[in-house]
């Protein structure tokens, strides 16, 4: 009998990490092309009122992280490196990763308060049904994959809470979110 190199969970993890790197490469590529074909002055004219408004940008990041990751954290990493408004690399990535980790825990807690996956499904978020199926298939492993890949971390945190996942286990597994943000941040920092 032939032995499989990767089981279903391993394949799922590798596939989603690959998607994350592809997405990161596209984002960085677009950023570099945009930077190459526009001057710093032009970029400041277009985005200056947003770039310089730290409470607005951080508020949008917090809301995005709580509302199912509407805007990927990599966009905010680029903003942090371009402006240095929230500090150097270590400070910026620390702030962004702690916000992301905390937002995930907020969603986990909301899920715990709901305690019924049926309520989440009745909210008519069709796309969340897909992640519910994945949660039922992979369980806690899905937190690991969502922490290190482009899967919607906030939505999966909500499902984990509603699915009554052990809180300590969730908090440990979701620490990989911090690792992901520092790792992706290092890549973005090097190429930008």
The secondary-structure element order is: HHHHHHHHHHH
What structural class results from the helix and strand content?
mainly alpha
Number of domains: 1
Low-confidence stretches: none
What's the total number of strands?
A: 0
Radius of gyration: 18 Å
User: How large a portion of the residues is in β-strands, by DSSP E?
Assistant: under 5%
Task: Report the span from N to C terminus.
Answer: 49 Å
Mean pLDDT: 85
Largest sheet: none
Question: Helix content range of the residues, please?
Answer: over 70%
What characteristic shape results from the CA principal axes?
globular
Q: How many helices?
A: 11
Domain VTT: 90-188
Organism: Negadavirga shengliensis
Keywords: Membrane, Transmembrane, Transmembrane helix
Transmembrane segments: 20-38, 50-71, 91-110, 131-158, 170-189
Would you mind describing this structure in some detail?
- Helix content is 80%, strand content 0%.
- It is mainly α and 192 residues long.
- The chain has one domain (8-191).
- The protein is globular, with a radius of gyration of 18 Å.
- The mean pLDDT is 85.
């Amino acid at each position: 009998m032939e032995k499989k190199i990767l089981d279903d969970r391993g394949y799922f993890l590798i596939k989603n990490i690959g998607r994350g790197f592809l997405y990161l490469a596209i984002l960085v590529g677009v950023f570099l092309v945009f930077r190459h074909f526009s001057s710093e002055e032009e970029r400041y004219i277009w985005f200056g009122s947003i770039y310089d408004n730290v409470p607005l940008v951080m508020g949008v990041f917090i809301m995005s992280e709580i509302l199912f990751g509407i805007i990927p954290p990599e966009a905010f990493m680029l903003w942090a490196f371009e402006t240095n408004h929230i500090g150097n690399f270590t400070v910026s990535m620390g702030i962004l990763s702690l916000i992301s980790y905390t937002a995930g825990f907020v969603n986990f807690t909301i899920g715990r308060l709901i305690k019924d996956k049926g309520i989440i499904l009745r909210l008519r978020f069709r796309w969340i049904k897909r992640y519910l199926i994945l949660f039922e298939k992979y369980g806690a492993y899905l937190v690991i994959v969502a922490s290190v890949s482009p899967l919607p971390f906030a939505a999966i945190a909500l499902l984990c809470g509603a699915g009554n996942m052990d809180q300590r286990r969730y908090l440990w597994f979701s620490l990989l979110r911090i690792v992901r943000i520092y790792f992706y941040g290092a890549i973005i920092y090097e190429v930008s």
